[in-house]
Specification:
By secondary structure, the protein is an alpha/beta fold. The protein contains 16 helices and 21 strands. It has helices spanning about 15-30, 40-50, 80-85, 95-105, 120-130, 190, 195-205, 225-230, 285-300, 305-315, 340-355, 370-375, 375-385, 405-410, 425-430, 450-465; strands spanning about 10, 30-35, 55, 70, 95, 110-115, 135-145, 150, 160-165, 175-180, 215, 235-240, 245-255, 255-265, 275-280, 325, 330-335, 360-365, 390, 420, 440-445. A ten-stranded mixed beta sheet has the order 8-7-9-6-10-11-12-13-14-15, sandwiched between helices. A six-stranded mixed beta sheet has the order 16-17-21-18-19-20, with helices on both faces. A five-stranded parallel beta sheet has the order 3-2-1-4-5, sandwiched between helices. The model has no long low-confidence stretch (mean pLDDT about 95).
Length: about 475
Protein backbone atom coordinates (compact mmCIF):
# COMPACT_ATOMS: atom_id res chain seq x y z
CA UNK A 1 0.00 0.00 0.00
CA UNK A 2 1.28 3.46 -0.93
CA UNK A 3 0.63 5.81 1.95
CA UNK A 4 1.01 8.82 -0.33
CA UNK A 5 -2.42 7.84 -1.69
CA UNK A 6 -4.07 8.05 1.77
CA UNK A 7 -6.38 11.06 1.86
CA UNK A 8 -8.88 9.97 4.54
CA UNK A 9 -7.90 7.62 7.38
CA UNK A 10 -9.76 6.27 10.42
CA UNK A 11 -8.23 5.07 13.71
CA UNK A 12 -10.06 2.65 16.00
CA UNK A 13 -8.50 3.46 19.37
CA UNK A 14 -6.98 6.77 18.29
CA UNK A 15 -6.22 7.77 21.90
CA UNK A 16 -3.69 4.99 22.37
CA UNK A 17 -0.14 6.29 22.62
CA UNK A 18 1.07 4.33 19.60
CA UNK A 19 -2.06 4.98 17.55
CA UNK A 20 -1.99 8.71 18.21
CA UNK A 21 1.61 8.90 16.99
CA UNK A 22 0.52 7.37 13.68
CA UNK A 23 -2.48 9.68 13.55
CA UNK A 24 -0.13 12.65 13.91
CA UNK A 25 2.09 11.27 11.14
CA UNK A 26 -0.77 11.06 8.64
CA UNK A 27 -2.19 14.41 9.73
CA UNK A 28 1.21 16.06 9.17
CA UNK A 29 1.31 14.45 5.72
CA UNK A 30 -2.00 16.02 4.68
CA UNK A 31 -4.54 13.27 5.34
CA UNK A 32 -7.92 13.91 6.94
CA UNK A 33 -7.77 11.97 10.22
CA UNK A 34 -10.82 10.60 12.04
CA UNK A 35 -10.98 8.27 15.00
CA UNK A 36 -12.82 6.60 17.84
CA UNK A 37 -11.78 6.16 21.45
CA UNK A 38 -13.63 5.07 24.53
CA UNK A 39 -13.17 8.20 26.64
CA UNK A 40 -11.79 11.73 26.20
CA UNK A 41 -8.26 12.22 27.53
CA UNK A 42 -5.66 14.94 27.45
CA UNK A 43 -4.17 13.19 24.42
CA UNK A 44 -7.41 12.93 22.44
CA UNK A 45 -8.16 16.57 23.23
CA UNK A 46 -4.72 17.48 21.90
CA UNK A 47 -5.44 15.56 18.68
CA UNK A 48 -8.70 17.46 18.28
CA UNK A 49 -6.93 20.78 18.84
CA UNK A 50 -4.47 19.80 16.12
CA UNK A 51 -7.36 19.38 13.68
CA UNK A 52 -8.28 15.70 13.91
CA UNK A 53 -11.83 14.47 14.41
CA UNK A 54 -12.48 12.19 17.41
CA UNK A 55 -15.69 10.73 18.83
CA UNK A 56 -16.33 8.57 21.90
CA UNK A 57 -19.33 6.37 21.11
CA UNK A 58 -19.07 2.94 19.48
CA UNK A 59 -21.37 3.85 16.62
CA UNK A 60 -20.78 2.61 13.05
CA UNK A 61 -22.80 5.59 11.84
CA UNK A 62 -19.93 7.84 12.92
CA UNK A 63 -17.45 6.21 10.52
CA UNK A 64 -16.81 8.64 7.65
CA UNK A 65 -17.50 7.61 4.06
CA UNK A 66 -14.87 7.03 1.38
CA UNK A 67 -12.12 5.88 3.71
CA UNK A 68 -8.77 5.02 2.13
CA UNK A 69 -7.59 3.10 5.20
CA UNK A 70 -8.70 2.10 8.68
CA UNK A 71 -6.19 1.26 11.43
CA UNK A 72 -7.05 -0.76 14.53
CA UNK A 73 -5.43 -1.88 17.74
CA UNK A 74 -5.73 -5.46 19.12
CA UNK A 75 -6.61 -3.86 22.46
CA UNK A 76 -10.16 -3.43 21.09
CA UNK A 77 -12.63 -6.17 22.07
CA UNK A 78 -13.75 -8.49 19.27
CA UNK A 79 -17.35 -7.34 19.89
CA UNK A 80 -16.60 -3.73 18.96
CA UNK A 81 -19.35 -2.63 16.57
CA UNK A 82 -17.26 -0.21 14.50
CA UNK A 83 -14.49 -2.80 14.05
CA UNK A 84 -17.07 -5.34 12.88
CA UNK A 85 -18.61 -2.83 10.47
CA UNK A 86 -15.26 -1.99 8.88
CA UNK A 87 -14.34 -5.67 8.62
CA UNK A 88 -17.59 -6.21 6.72
CA UNK A 89 -16.89 -3.30 4.39
CA UNK A 90 -14.44 -2.90 1.51
CA UNK A 91 -12.24 -0.48 3.46
CA UNK A 92 -8.63 -1.70 3.81
CA UNK A 93 -7.97 -2.51 7.48
CA UNK A 94 -4.48 -2.78 9.02
CA UNK A 95 -3.14 -3.20 12.53
CA UNK A 96 -1.16 -0.34 14.03
CA UNK A 97 1.99 -2.48 13.94
CA UNK A 98 1.54 -3.22 10.23
CA UNK A 99 1.31 0.49 9.42
CA UNK A 100 4.43 1.27 11.45
CA UNK A 101 6.24 -1.55 9.68
CA UNK A 102 5.35 -0.16 6.25
CA UNK A 103 6.39 3.39 7.19
CA UNK A 104 9.74 2.30 8.64
CA UNK A 105 10.58 -0.27 5.95
CA UNK A 106 12.22 2.24 3.62
CA UNK A 107 14.03 3.99 6.49
CA UNK A 108 17.10 3.29 8.57
CA UNK A 109 15.21 2.06 11.60
CA UNK A 110 16.50 2.00 15.18
CA UNK A 111 14.09 -0.21 17.13
CA UNK A 112 14.02 -0.62 20.91
CA UNK A 113 12.58 -3.85 22.32
CA UNK A 114 12.17 -5.42 25.75
CA UNK A 115 9.58 -6.01 28.44
CA UNK A 116 10.70 -2.80 30.18
CA UNK A 117 12.48 0.34 29.15
CA UNK A 118 11.19 0.65 25.58
CA UNK A 119 9.61 4.06 25.89
CA UNK A 120 12.33 5.69 27.97
CA UNK A 121 15.07 4.31 25.74
CA UNK A 122 13.21 5.27 22.55
CA UNK A 123 12.58 8.85 23.71
CA UNK A 124 16.17 9.14 24.86
CA UNK A 125 17.44 7.77 21.53
CA UNK A 126 15.34 10.28 19.57
CA UNK A 127 16.72 13.09 21.74
CA UNK A 128 20.32 11.91 21.28
CA UNK A 129 19.84 11.81 17.51
CA UNK A 130 18.58 15.38 17.41
CA UNK A 131 21.16 16.61 19.92
CA UNK A 132 23.85 14.96 17.81
CA UNK A 133 22.72 16.50 14.54
CA UNK A 134 20.62 13.67 13.04
CA UNK A 135 17.09 14.87 12.22
CA UNK A 136 15.37 11.55 12.92
CA UNK A 137 11.66 10.79 12.85
CA UNK A 138 10.29 8.93 15.86
CA UNK A 139 7.19 6.99 16.83
CA UNK A 140 7.20 6.87 20.62
CA UNK A 141 5.19 5.14 23.33
CA UNK A 142 5.11 8.20 25.55
CA UNK A 143 5.20 11.99 25.45
CA UNK A 144 8.88 12.93 25.18
CA UNK A 145 9.26 16.09 27.23
CA UNK A 146 12.08 17.44 25.04
CA UNK A 147 9.61 17.46 22.11
CA UNK A 148 6.26 17.53 23.98
CA UNK A 149 4.99 14.83 21.62
CA UNK A 150 4.96 11.12 20.92
CA UNK A 151 5.67 11.75 17.23
CA UNK A 152 8.66 13.57 15.79
CA UNK A 153 8.81 14.51 12.11
CA UNK A 154 12.36 14.36 10.80
CA UNK A 155 14.00 14.95 7.44
CA UNK A 156 16.77 12.36 7.67
CA UNK A 157 16.52 8.72 6.63
CA UNK A 158 16.53 7.58 10.28
CA UNK A 159 13.43 6.60 12.26
CA UNK A 160 13.27 5.58 15.92
CA UNK A 161 10.51 3.13 16.85
CA UNK A 162 9.42 1.03 19.78
CA UNK A 163 9.34 -2.68 19.00
CA UNK A 164 6.27 -3.77 20.96
CA UNK A 165 6.08 -7.44 21.93
CA UNK A 166 2.32 -7.31 22.64
CA UNK A 167 0.44 -9.40 20.08
CA UNK A 168 3.83 -10.04 18.41
CA UNK A 169 3.58 -6.55 16.91
CA UNK A 170 7.35 -6.17 16.51
CA UNK A 171 7.42 -8.92 13.89
CA UNK A 172 6.37 -6.24 11.36
CA UNK A 173 9.68 -4.36 11.83
CA UNK A 174 12.99 -4.93 10.02
CA UNK A 175 15.40 -2.55 11.79
CA UNK A 176 19.01 -1.65 11.07
CA UNK A 177 19.81 -1.31 14.78
CA UNK A 178 17.97 -3.12 17.55
CA UNK A 179 18.27 -2.82 21.32
CA UNK A 180 16.98 -5.58 23.59
CA UNK A 181 16.61 -4.27 27.15
CA UNK A 182 14.87 -7.13 28.96
CA UNK A 183 12.98 -10.40 28.50
CA UNK A 184 10.97 -10.75 31.70
CA UNK A 185 7.69 -12.59 31.43
CA UNK A 186 4.64 -10.51 30.46
CA UNK A 187 1.60 -10.73 28.17
CA UNK A 188 1.11 -14.38 29.05
CA UNK A 189 -2.48 -13.97 27.80
CA UNK A 190 -0.83 -13.83 24.36
CA UNK A 191 2.22 -16.07 24.74
CA UNK A 192 0.98 -18.53 27.40
CA UNK A 193 4.54 -19.30 28.55
CA UNK A 194 7.68 -17.28 29.25
CA UNK A 195 9.62 -19.61 26.97
CA UNK A 196 7.29 -18.90 24.03
CA UNK A 197 7.73 -15.18 24.62
CA UNK A 198 11.53 -15.50 24.66
CA UNK A 199 11.44 -17.53 21.44
CA UNK A 200 9.46 -14.74 19.77
CA UNK A 201 12.05 -12.19 20.88
CA UNK A 202 14.75 -14.34 19.29
CA UNK A 203 12.72 -14.51 16.08
CA UNK A 204 12.40 -10.72 16.07
CA UNK A 205 16.15 -10.22 16.50
CA UNK A 206 16.71 -12.28 13.36
CA UNK A 207 14.74 -9.66 11.41
CA UNK A 208 17.56 -7.15 11.79
CA UNK A 209 18.71 -6.17 8.31
CA UNK A 210 21.87 -7.98 7.08
CA UNK A 211 24.97 -6.25 8.41
CA UNK A 212 22.91 -4.44 11.06
CA UNK A 213 23.54 -4.03 14.78
CA UNK A 214 22.26 -5.91 17.82
CA UNK A 215 22.78 -4.32 21.25
CA UNK A 216 21.54 -6.38 24.18
CA UNK A 217 21.71 -6.17 27.94
CA UNK A 218 24.43 -8.37 29.41
CA UNK A 219 22.98 -11.47 31.03
CA UNK A 220 19.98 -11.97 28.76
CA UNK A 221 19.63 -15.57 27.49
CA UNK A 222 20.49 -14.88 23.85
CA UNK A 223 24.27 -15.35 23.82
CA UNK A 224 24.09 -18.36 21.48
CA UNK A 225 21.97 -16.45 18.96
CA UNK A 226 24.15 -13.35 19.32
CA UNK A 227 27.34 -15.30 18.64
CA UNK A 228 25.78 -16.88 15.56
CA UNK A 229 24.66 -13.49 14.26
CA UNK A 230 28.14 -12.11 14.88
CA UNK A 231 29.54 -14.89 12.71
CA UNK A 232 27.06 -13.94 9.99
CA UNK A 233 28.40 -10.38 9.76
CA UNK A 234 26.17 -8.52 12.22
CA UNK A 235 27.65 -6.03 14.68
CA UNK A 236 26.82 -7.44 18.11
CA UNK A 237 27.51 -5.91 21.53
CA UNK A 238 26.39 -6.41 25.12
CA UNK A 239 25.80 -3.41 27.36
CA UNK A 240 25.56 -3.13 31.12
CA UNK A 241 26.80 -1.69 34.39
CA UNK A 242 30.43 -2.67 34.95
CA UNK A 243 30.04 -5.44 32.37
CA UNK A 244 29.64 -5.91 28.64
CA UNK A 245 31.13 -4.28 25.55
CA UNK A 246 29.58 -0.88 26.36
CA UNK A 247 29.62 -0.05 30.06
CA UNK A 248 28.50 2.38 32.69
CA UNK A 249 31.34 2.54 35.22
CA UNK A 250 31.63 4.14 38.66
CA UNK A 251 27.87 4.69 39.01
CA UNK A 252 27.01 7.17 41.76
CA UNK A 253 24.61 9.96 42.77
CA UNK A 254 26.00 13.48 43.01
CA UNK A 255 23.82 16.50 43.89
CA UNK A 256 20.68 14.61 42.94
CA UNK A 257 22.06 13.52 39.56
CA UNK A 258 22.82 9.95 38.48
CA UNK A 259 26.45 9.96 37.33
CA UNK A 260 28.64 7.38 35.61
CA UNK A 261 31.42 7.00 33.06
CA UNK A 262 30.55 5.62 29.61
CA UNK A 263 33.31 3.38 28.29
CA UNK A 264 33.81 0.77 25.58
CA UNK A 265 35.43 -2.64 25.96
CA UNK A 266 37.74 -4.43 23.54
CA UNK A 267 34.81 -6.12 21.76
CA UNK A 268 32.84 -2.92 21.13
CA UNK A 269 32.22 -2.86 17.34
CA UNK A 270 32.94 0.85 17.08
CA UNK A 271 33.36 3.61 16.53
CA UNK A 272 36.19 3.74 19.08
CA UNK A 273 35.95 6.56 21.65
CA UNK A 274 37.62 7.70 24.84
CA UNK A 275 35.54 7.27 28.03
CA UNK A 276 33.21 10.19 28.77
CA UNK A 277 31.60 11.31 32.03
CA UNK A 278 27.80 11.39 32.04
CA UNK A 279 25.16 12.91 34.34
CA UNK A 280 21.45 12.20 33.95
CA UNK A 281 18.46 13.45 35.91
CA UNK A 282 16.95 10.02 36.56
CA UNK A 283 18.18 7.70 39.33
CA UNK A 284 18.33 3.93 39.42
CA UNK A 285 20.16 1.15 37.64
CA UNK A 286 17.31 0.74 35.14
CA UNK A 287 17.72 4.32 33.95
CA UNK A 288 21.46 3.85 33.61
CA UNK A 289 20.86 0.74 31.49
CA UNK A 290 18.44 2.73 29.30
CA UNK A 291 20.99 5.52 28.92
CA UNK A 292 23.78 3.14 27.93
CA UNK A 293 21.49 1.40 25.41
CA UNK A 294 20.47 4.69 23.80
CA UNK A 295 24.09 5.82 23.78
CA UNK A 296 25.01 2.62 21.95
CA UNK A 297 22.49 3.36 19.20
CA UNK A 298 23.71 6.95 18.86
CA UNK A 299 27.35 5.89 18.71
CA UNK A 300 26.62 3.26 16.06
CA UNK A 301 24.76 5.91 14.06
CA UNK A 302 27.92 8.00 14.01
CA UNK A 303 27.29 10.56 16.75
CA UNK A 304 30.51 11.50 18.63
CA UNK A 305 30.76 10.35 22.26
CA UNK A 306 31.05 13.95 23.52
CA UNK A 307 27.75 14.84 21.83
CA UNK A 308 26.18 11.70 23.28
CA UNK A 309 27.25 12.72 26.80
CA UNK A 310 25.86 16.23 26.28
CA UNK A 311 22.58 14.82 25.00
CA UNK A 312 22.23 12.49 27.98
CA UNK A 313 22.67 15.49 30.27
CA UNK A 314 20.00 17.57 28.52
CA UNK A 315 17.40 14.78 28.34
CA UNK A 316 14.20 15.91 30.09
CA UNK A 317 12.45 12.53 30.29
CA UNK A 318 9.03 11.15 29.41
CA UNK A 319 5.65 12.03 30.78
CA UNK A 320 4.68 9.41 33.37
CA UNK A 321 8.17 7.85 33.43
CA UNK A 322 9.58 8.86 36.81
CA UNK A 323 8.07 12.27 36.19
CA UNK A 324 8.50 14.81 38.98
CA UNK A 325 5.07 16.40 39.35
CA UNK A 326 5.77 18.28 42.58
CA UNK A 327 9.27 18.84 43.93
CA UNK A 328 9.72 21.02 47.00
CA UNK A 329 11.30 20.85 50.45
CA UNK A 330 7.88 19.83 51.82
CA UNK A 331 6.59 17.33 49.27
CA UNK A 332 7.92 15.25 46.43
CA UNK A 333 5.39 13.70 44.06
CA UNK A 334 6.53 11.35 41.28
CA UNK A 335 4.24 9.75 38.71
CA UNK A 336 5.31 6.58 36.88
CA UNK A 337 3.80 4.24 34.30
CA UNK A 338 5.13 1.14 36.12
CA UNK A 339 2.68 -1.76 35.72
CA UNK A 340 4.90 -4.86 35.93
CA UNK A 341 6.55 -6.12 39.16
CA UNK A 342 10.06 -5.45 37.89
CA UNK A 343 9.09 -1.91 36.91
CA UNK A 344 7.57 -1.31 40.34
CA UNK A 345 10.71 -2.61 42.05
CA UNK A 346 12.90 -0.38 39.91
CA UNK A 347 10.78 2.71 40.54
CA UNK A 348 10.43 2.21 44.29
CA UNK A 349 14.11 1.34 44.65
CA UNK A 350 15.13 4.49 42.76
CA UNK A 351 12.93 6.64 45.00
CA UNK A 352 14.34 4.96 48.09
CA UNK A 353 17.89 5.69 46.91
CA UNK A 354 17.02 9.39 46.57
CA UNK A 355 15.02 9.67 49.81
CA UNK A 356 16.41 7.03 52.20
CA UNK A 357 15.12 8.78 55.32
CA UNK A 358 11.67 9.85 54.14
CA UNK A 359 8.30 8.13 54.30
CA UNK A 360 7.19 6.86 50.88
CA UNK A 361 3.49 6.50 50.05
CA UNK A 362 2.54 4.65 46.89
CA UNK A 363 -0.76 4.56 45.01
CA UNK A 364 -0.90 1.62 42.59
CA UNK A 365 -3.57 0.64 40.06
CA UNK A 366 -3.07 -2.94 38.83
CA UNK A 367 -3.47 -3.25 35.05
CA UNK A 368 -5.26 -6.33 33.65
CA UNK A 369 -6.74 -9.22 35.58
CA UNK A 370 -4.48 -11.71 33.81
CA UNK A 371 -1.27 -9.81 34.64
CA UNK A 372 -2.35 -9.43 38.29
CA UNK A 373 -3.07 -13.17 38.48
CA UNK A 374 0.16 -14.21 36.76
CA UNK A 375 2.49 -11.98 38.81
CA UNK A 376 0.62 -11.52 42.10
CA UNK A 377 3.55 -12.56 44.30
CA UNK A 378 5.93 -10.27 42.40
CA UNK A 379 3.56 -7.33 42.76
CA UNK A 380 3.17 -7.97 46.49
CA UNK A 381 6.94 -8.18 47.00
CA UNK A 382 7.52 -4.95 45.05
CA UNK A 383 4.82 -3.01 46.91
CA UNK A 384 6.20 -4.16 50.26
CA UNK A 385 9.09 -1.78 49.52
CA UNK A 386 6.78 1.16 50.32
CA UNK A 387 6.01 2.59 53.76
CA UNK A 388 2.34 3.07 52.91
CA UNK A 389 0.38 1.56 50.01
CA UNK A 390 -2.97 2.46 48.49
CA UNK A 391 -4.33 -0.08 46.01
CA UNK A 392 -6.98 0.83 43.45
CA UNK A 393 -9.30 -1.71 41.83
CA UNK A 394 -7.82 -3.52 38.83
CA UNK A 395 -8.04 -1.59 35.56
CA UNK A 396 -9.54 -4.15 33.13
CA UNK A 397 -8.61 -2.56 29.77
CA UNK A 398 -9.57 -5.21 27.20
CA UNK A 399 -10.32 -7.99 29.70
CA UNK A 400 -13.34 -9.45 31.47
CA UNK A 401 -13.02 -10.09 35.24
CA UNK A 402 -11.40 -13.33 36.42
CA UNK A 403 -13.05 -14.91 39.49
CA UNK A 404 -10.93 -14.50 42.61
CA UNK A 405 -8.56 -12.01 41.01
CA UNK A 406 -8.88 -8.55 42.51
CA UNK A 407 -6.93 -6.02 44.54
CA UNK A 408 -7.99 -7.70 47.79
CA UNK A 409 -6.24 -10.89 46.62
CA UNK A 410 -3.13 -8.84 45.92
CA UNK A 411 -3.26 -7.01 49.26
CA UNK A 412 -3.59 -10.30 51.15
CA UNK A 413 -0.19 -11.37 49.80
CA UNK A 414 1.57 -8.21 50.98
CA UNK A 415 3.50 -8.13 54.28
CA UNK A 416 3.28 -4.33 54.54
CA UNK A 417 1.23 -3.20 57.54
CA UNK A 418 0.01 0.17 56.27
CA UNK A 419 -2.09 -0.79 53.24
CA UNK A 420 -5.65 -0.27 52.03
CA UNK A 421 -7.90 -0.41 48.97
CA UNK A 422 -9.64 2.76 47.80
CA UNK A 423 -11.77 3.69 44.84
CA UNK A 424 -10.12 6.21 42.56
CA UNK A 425 -12.41 9.04 43.73
CA UNK A 426 -11.46 8.36 47.36
CA UNK A 427 -7.72 8.84 46.92
CA UNK A 428 -7.43 12.64 47.10
CA UNK A 429 -9.77 12.97 50.14
CA UNK A 430 -7.67 10.30 51.88
CA UNK A 431 -4.38 12.03 51.03
CA UNK A 432 -5.74 15.32 52.35
CA UNK A 433 -5.71 13.74 55.83
CA UNK A 434 -2.16 12.40 55.52
CA UNK A 435 1.22 14.00 56.16
CA UNK A 436 2.74 13.21 52.77
CA UNK A 437 6.52 13.33 52.39
CA UNK A 438 7.16 11.38 49.19
CA UNK A 439 4.28 10.21 47.01
CA UNK A 440 4.27 7.82 44.05
CA UNK A 441 1.41 7.08 41.68
CA UNK A 442 2.03 4.00 39.56
CA UNK A 443 0.08 2.17 36.89
CA UNK A 444 -0.94 2.09 33.23
CA UNK A 445 -4.71 2.52 33.44
CA UNK A 446 -6.83 5.49 34.48
CA UNK A 447 -4.61 6.42 37.42
CA UNK A 448 -3.21 9.26 35.31
CA UNK A 449 -6.50 11.12 35.95
CA UNK A 450 -5.34 11.54 39.57
CA UNK A 451 -2.17 13.42 38.69
CA UNK A 452 -3.61 16.93 38.38
CA UNK A 453 -5.95 16.65 41.43
CA UNK A 454 -3.10 15.35 43.61
CA UNK A 455 -0.74 18.00 42.28
CA UNK A 456 -3.29 20.74 43.03
CA UNK A 457 -3.84 19.40 46.54
CA UNK A 458 -0.12 19.30 47.36
CA UNK A 459 0.52 22.77 45.94
CA UNK A 460 -2.52 24.22 47.73
CA UNK A 461 -1.45 22.56 50.95
CA UNK A 462 2.07 23.98 50.56
CA UNK A 463 0.65 27.47 50.04
CA UNK A 464 -1.66 27.12 53.03
CA UNK A 465 1.23 26.02 55.26
CA UNK A 466 3.19 29.14 54.28
CA UNK A 467 0.23 31.34 55.22
Amino acid sequence: MKFNDIHTIYFLGIGGIGMSALARYFHRHGAKVYGYDRTPTALTRALEQEGMHVHYTDDPGMIPANLDLAVWTPALPSTHQELTAIRNSETPLLKRAEVLGIISKSKRCAAISGTHGKTSTSCLTAHLFHAGGIDASAFLGGIALNFNSNFIEGNSDWVVAEADEYDRSFMHLHPEITVLNSMDADHLDIYETHEAMQDTYRAFLQQIKPGGTLLYKAGLPIDALANRMKGEGYAVARFGIEQGDLQAQNMRIEQGMQCFRLAAGDQWPGPVFDPVDVSIRFPGAHNVHNAVAAAGIALRAGIPAEKVAEGLGSYAGVRRRFEYVVQSPDHTYIDDYAHHPEELKACISAVRSLFPDRNITGVFQPHLFSRTRDFADGFAEALDGLDQCILLPIYPAREEPIPGVDSAMLMARMNLKDKRILEINEVVPFLEKQDIEVLLTMGAGSIDTLVEPIKNHLLTRKTAQKL
